[in-house]
Design a protein that fits this description.
Layout lengths: L1 H16 L8 H11 L1 H13 L2 H7 L4 E16 L5 E20 L1 H68 L5 H36 L23 H11 L1 H21 L5 E11 L6 E11 L7 H68 L4 H35 L5 H8 L51
Antiparallel strand pairs: 1-2, 2-3, 3-4
Helix pairs in contact: 1-5, 2-5, 3-5, 4-5, 5-6, 5-8, 5-10, 7-9, 8-9, 9-10
């Protein structure tokens, strides 16, 4: 059955992709995603932008220096004694330099801690995006293989039903089958054609999702081999994985920093109630008339907030509510992480059992199909029995392939939830890939335009004449032997 799977798969890929191209493996696709994934690039830019929070916060503690230059011309008329007046006109200028040094500002001090938390959160978010890329690449890669398997089995199933339909038509013409057998075979064939069309569309969609990660279209991918090992997660205790997740899960760490930021923001808002003290040193030179004047000044400025219309208190309450919201979000994320870890652990255990069971089911359904085909030939089984047995064979193949992919995805999901996912895990899984239909670089995937194969005989059975009386077989039911 596996050999048949590969032959059908090869036929589909040649039909869809033209001449053979090189197969990309999981690590190659991951490398390409690292270079071009927009989500990862956006996270890197966000991390770099967040690094600027610290120098901006530090600047609040450092002196600021301002300078100004002003020039102009004054003119007018002065009243003089004895009823006389005198016109005047002269140039004016004003040069000033001012230095301000904050001495005490509680809000500026809190901003230092807030900036540090912002940077730490950005670093964790970037690491989480890197980890998430590993999972997204694996999901995209195996999503294509899942869709390709589905198309393989759908096409094989359709071709098998086409042969059954052709056989039913021939047996009906010679009086060895009833019209009901033909209609049953036709209905099964039509359903298989519909499933193949859906599988073709699903494969195109899966390829598009993989292309979104790298900007490349893949005509060929290495497929999963039978040498994939089956082992329980190590350590073999879900609660140990839960403990690792609560300590190392990157989303939880990021949410923890969000709580820290919300807490510090309360202190920033409350700082509006505190006085501020600053030092101002200025030097100014100006010409109010015809005499140059220089003025140097050193000031200590103490500002005591008395009343601001309740704005400071309102912003403090708002920050407190935001802090409570972030705490509850962290609590929910912790619970969700525990659920994900336990589900992934159980999912890996379940997948192992399913793989073993489905492998045996593949053998059993094949034997059942052969028995039903033999029974149909001698008249102890109906065409419905054969069609159902044929359908069970391909359903078992689908279930077996699906269980294997679920094992891999649960393996990666568990490690990501526990904060343990790394490129080494992809390298390990990449070693489970085997046959490649061809090997070259990523090529352009042609549009999928393959049409369902039609049986050699017309799909709809034509009325046959009964050789005994010449009447239409639609009206005279042939005797089954």
């Amino acid at each position: 059955m596996r050999k048949m799977h590969h032959l059908v798969l090869a036929g589909i890929v040649v039909a869809l992709g033209g001449s053979p191209a090189a197969a990309e493996d999981l690590l190659q696709v991951y490398r390409q995603a690292q270079d071009s994934d927009p989500v990862l690039k956006a996270a890197a830019a966000t991390q770099q932008a967040s690094q600027e929070a610290l120098p901006q916060a530090r600047a609040l503690l450092l002196p600021s220096l301002d300078g100004s230059v002003q020039g102009g011309k004054d003119f007018g008329t002065n009243d003089a004694s004895a009823g006389s007046s005198r016109d005047y006109s002269f140039d004016t200028y004003n040069y000033s330099v001012s230095l301000n040094q904050p001495i005490y500002n509680r809000g500026n001090q809190v901003q230092q801690r807030l900036a540090k938390s912002t940077i730490d959160k950005a670093d964790v978010d970037f690491r989480n995006t890197q980890s998430d890329l590993i999972l997204r690449v694996a999901q995209g890669y195996f999503g294509v293989l899942i869709a390709l398997d589905s198309l393989t089995f759908a096409t094989a199933e359709k071709n098998a039903f086409a042969r059954q339909l052709e056989q039913a038509n021939r047996r009906f013409e010679v009086g060895l089958a009833t019209i009901t057998d033909v209609y049953d075979a036709q209905a099964s064939f039509d359903g298989a054609v519909s499933r193949e069309i859906s599988a073709i569309n699903a494969l195109a969609d899966a390829r598009e999702q993989l292309r979104q990660l790298t900007g490349l279209e893949y005509a060929r991918l290495s497929i999963l081999s039978e040498k994939m090992p089956l082992s329980l997660p190590n350590p073999q205790n879900p609660e140990e994985w839960v403990g690792m997740a609560l300590a190392n899960n990157l989303e939880l760490l990021s949410a923890g920093f969000s709580v820290d930021q919300a807490r510090e923001n309360i202190n920033v808002q409350k700082a509006g109630h505190y006085p501020t003290l600053g030092l101002n040193v200025s030097s100014a030179m100006y010409n109010p008339g015809e005499l140059d004047t220089t003025l140097n000044r050193v000031n200590l400025q103490l500002a005591i907030p008395l009343y601001s219309g309740g704005a400071v208190s309102s912003r403090s309450r708002q920050a407190a509510y935001t802090y409570e919201s972030s705490r509850q979000q962290l609590e929910n994320l912790q619970r969700d992480t525990i659920r994900v870890v336990r589900d992934a652990y159980r999912g890996q255990e379940t997948a192992i059992s399913q793989i073993k069971a489905m492998n045996q089911t593949r053998i059993s359904t094949r034997s059942a199909l052969e028995a039903n085909q033999a029974g149909y030939e001698v008249g102890t089984r109906t065409i419905v029995d054969v069609l159902n047995a044929e359908r069970s064979v391909y359903q078992a193949e689908r279930d077996y392939a699906s269980a294997r992919y679920n094992y891999i995805l649960n393996f990666l999901t568990l490690r990501q939830a526990a904060g343990q996912l790394s490129e080494a895990d992809l390298t390990e899984i990449n070693g489970w890939l085997g046959e490649a239909l061809s090997t070259s670089g990523p090529g352009t995937m042609p549009e999928i335009t393959a049409k369902p194969l039609e049986p050699e005989e017309p799909a709809k059975p034509a009325p046959a004449r009964n050789k005994a009386n010449g009447k239409s077989a639609e009206k005279t039911k042939p005797a089954a032997k």
